[in-house]
Design brief:
By secondary structure, this protein is mostly helical. The protein has one domain. The chain is built from six helices and two strands. It has helices at about 1-15, 35-40, 55-85, 90-115, 120-140, 155-185; strands at about 45, 50. It has a two-stranded antiparallel ribbon with strand order 1-2. It is elongated, with a radius of gyration of 20 Å.
Length: about 190
């Protein structure tokens, strides 16, 4: 999963470009020459003529969504069991940490529009979110697997905060915005 995420960050940085907000037009009006060029590129055949560039981008967005939901599902499914086996924690203690991190993530969503979206575009926000996922996962890479009591609980809490408070909410909101811009730009409603 880490390799797939690194590959995804590389592809996002080198091959995806965020559409500026002033380029999103109402499709009921006559298109300008520049907008018509954008539409022609989006509707051009790709992938051996089997689909359009726009369809290919939406499929790419679907895979981006899988790479956000995949690690999150692992953390949701295995997070408490992982805390028990690698940190020698009680379920209630691990659940409290996860709940607190989730609460901070919800608060992050509330202030996301004010804090981060003014300074970064969707691609950059997705990359920030994936970076937070990577950091959260990497924190758990160097644990003492022989004796779980040697692993400090703050490492688990920090890992959960990076994943639940930052990575997931930031990526998820940016992906929703990314999908909606794709539909608006292609003329779909």
């Amino acid at each position: 999963m880490a390799f797939a995420t690194f590959t995804l960050i590389y592809l996002l940085y080198n091959h995806f470009k965020d559409i500026p907000e002033n380029k999103i037009y109402n499709t009921s009006k006559k298109l300008s020459a520049r907008r018509q060029v954008y539409e022609d590129v989006a509707n051009a055949p790709a992938c051996f003529g089997l689909m359009t560039n726009h369809t290919l981008c939406l499929i790419g967005c679907m895979f981006l969504n899988v790479f956000v939901k995949g690690p999150m599902s692992c953390f949701e499914t295995l997070g408490v069991a992982f805390a028990e086996s690698h940190f020698d924690m009680q379920r209630q203690q691990a659940g409290t940490i996860v709940a607190l991190a989730g609460f901070l993530g919800a608060m992050n969503l509330i202030v996301l529009k004010v804090s981060i979206t003014q300074y970064f575009n969707d691609i950059q926000i997705i990359m920030i979110g994936y970076s937070m996922f990577i950091i959260g996962i990497m924190i758990n890479t160097f644990l003492d697997k022989e004796d779980p009591q040697n692993n400090p609980i703050w490492m688990y809490a920090l890992s959960m905060c990076f994943v639940y408070s930052g990575g997931y909410p930031v990526c998820h909101v940016a992906l929703i915005g990314f999908f909606s811009k794709g539909k608006i730009c292609s003329g779909e409603q």
